[in-house]
Amino acid sequence: KLEIPDDTAQQYKLTFIDSRNNLWFTAQNGIMKWNLKNNHSENLGVDMKDSTISPINFARSIAEDNQHHFWISTVTNGFNEWYVDDWNQQHWKNYNTSTFPDLKSDIIGEIKKDYEGNLWIGTVAGMIKFSPVTRKKISEDSQQTGLWSDNLQVNFALTPSGKLVICNYGALNILDLKARHKNKFSPIPVIT
Question: Pairing relation of β-strands 31-35 and 40-44?
Answer without folding.
Answer: antiparallel
